[in-house]
Amino acid sequence: MTAQETAAQQGKLQDSVAQALDQAAALGASQAEASASFGAGLSVTVRQQDVETLEYHRDQGLDVTVYFGQRKGSASTTDMRAAAIAETVAKACSLARYAAEDEAAGLADASRMATEFPDLDLYHHWALDADEAISVATACEAAALNSDKRISNSEGATVGKHEGCHVYGNSHGFLAGFPDSQHSLSCSVLAGQGGNMQRDYEYTVARDPAELVAAETVGRQAGLATVARLGSRKLDTRVTPVIYPAKLARGLFGHAIGALGGGALYRRASFLLDGLGEQVFAPHITLSERPFLPRGLSSSTFDNEGVATQERALVSRGVLEGYVLASYYARKLGLDSTGNAGGVHNLLVSDTGVSYADLIEEMGTGFVVTELMGQGVNPVTGDYSRGAAGFWIENGEIVHPVHEVTLGGNLRDMYKGILQVATDTDCRGGIRSGSVLIDKMTLAGS
Q1: What is the mean pLDDT of residues 342-365?
Q2: Is the pLDDT of residue 392 over 90?
Q3: Average pLDDT value for residue range 267-294
Q4: What pLDDT digit, counting tens, does each position of 296-331 carry?
């Protein structure tokens, strides 16, 4: 969609949201909120240099929530005609009348609504048609297949573009929206040698297609990463320093964000429960939320409830300073919303001013994890146990690739044991971190 088409769609969504709010008021709702979205895009997958899938997608939807006092009802529709919207609101009102009262139900506080909406440069049109997308995916996969003669098969290269807009409004008088885009390219291949098969992948994602890594580079990196894993072997069990490369490190900090969410805290199912003011990370670690980064993949001026987002430190010099709350669980906890309905908005992990090579040198001997498997993380206790693959390092040099091992520890100990965070920050997600060196973990093998 062009910028003009997107603007027109956003205007239609605003009209639909306004109609839903007016209808809710007319039916006696004491409060109401509605969100609407529209998106369109293209996805192409090429496998073994042939087109495997070609998909166009175009979707829209409207979600309505109404409150009668502290009774709540919700309904949704993909039909944006006026009659369908009126019927959807009526259904939500009908459900609310039969719902049990909930003292925490209701809109976010009116005083917390966003009032300033700077342009965060989140929308960039990609004039890419199907033929061009096929060419990009073909070139990406070809680069992977040609990177080494041991590349024996492919899971394909996929090009995707998505453009759309979102609008949110509520009965506080809040009504705002924005256009956005997200484009991507990925490639996954397999390599074989002496009966040993390995796979790996590479990808790039950005708001602006001009910021995507070149197709040939993505393919070549996928191929080289796959070949590097050939000859993998097991290790015996040991305690060792571990490096999480940047593309895996975001998951390490994602566990902390989950533990700081309102639902986990209210259910007392968080290993960071009652942690405000405590030293929960190493003293050189700061986690900052930066919602106004231009073209950030999680940038926004307001959250899913219209609450203004804000720059803040969740962790400062290792000390926990804030939670991640939407209004419902904030009320349950006797606290205020932190503007995080829908999640965090660009969490930045501070680095310690060293390079990835410096991490390897400081570690000397240890394990670099390149793949994690399974969901063995206990959010209540912080116990951590996940299948892993990677490389064994001795004297700063790769000795051999490793597979079929398990990394174990406890997240509290792991966070406090972070020795360094490199400057190779990975910006391909809502959490931005460089590679992380942890002092010790248990590596369970044969």
Answers
A1: 96
A2: yes
A3: 96
A4: 999 999 999 999 999 999 999 999 999 999 999 999
**C-alpha to C-alpha distance for 277 and 357, rounded to whole angstroms:** 34
Q: Amino acid identity, residue 325? A: L
CB 168 within 8 A of CB 304: yes
Backbone dihedral region for residue 28 (phi beyond 0: left; psi -120 to 50: alpha; all else: beta): left
Residue 248 has pLDDT above 90, yes or no: yes
pLDDT of residue 374: 85
Q: Please give the mean pLDDT across all residues of the chain.
A: 96
Kindly report the pTM of this predicted structure.
0.92
The answer to whether the beta carbons of residues 245 and 285 sit under 8 Å apart is no
Please check the confidence at residue 88 and state whether its pLDDT lies above 80: yes
pLDDT class for 375, splitting at 50, 70, 90?
A: confident
CATH superfamily of 3-228: PmbA/TldD superfamily (3.30.2290.10)
Average confidence (pLDDT) over 64-88: 97
pLDDT band at 160, cuts 50/70/90? very high
Structure tokens at 128: 């890419």
Partners of residue 193 on adjacent β-strands: 196
Q: What 3 state SS string does the chain have?
A: CCHHHHHHHHHHHHHHHHHHHHHHHHCCCCEEEEEEEEEEEEEEEEECCEEEEEEEEEEEEEEEEEEECCEEEEEEECCCCHHHHHHHHHHHHHHHHHCCCCCCCCCCCHHHECCCCCCCCCCCCCCCCHHHHHHHHHHHHHHHHCCCCCEEEEEEEEEEEEEEEEEEEECCCCEEEEEEEEEEEEEEEEEEECCEEEEEEEEEEECCHHHCCCHHHHHHHHHHHHHHCCCCECCCCEEEEEEECHHHHHHHHHHHHHHCEHHHHHCCCCCCCCCCCCECCCCCCCEEECCCCCCCCCCCCECCCCEECCCEEEEECCEECCCECCHHHHHHCCCCCCCCCCCCCCEEECCCCECHHHHHHHHCCEEEEEEEECCCECCCCCEEEEEEEEEEEECCEEEEEEEEEEEEEEHHHHHHCEEEEECCCECCCCEEECCEEEEEEEEECC
HSE value, Cβ hemisphere, 13 Å, CA-based, for 212: 26
The residue ranges of every structural domain in the chain are: 3-228, 238-444
Residues 6+ apart with CB under 8 A from 413: none
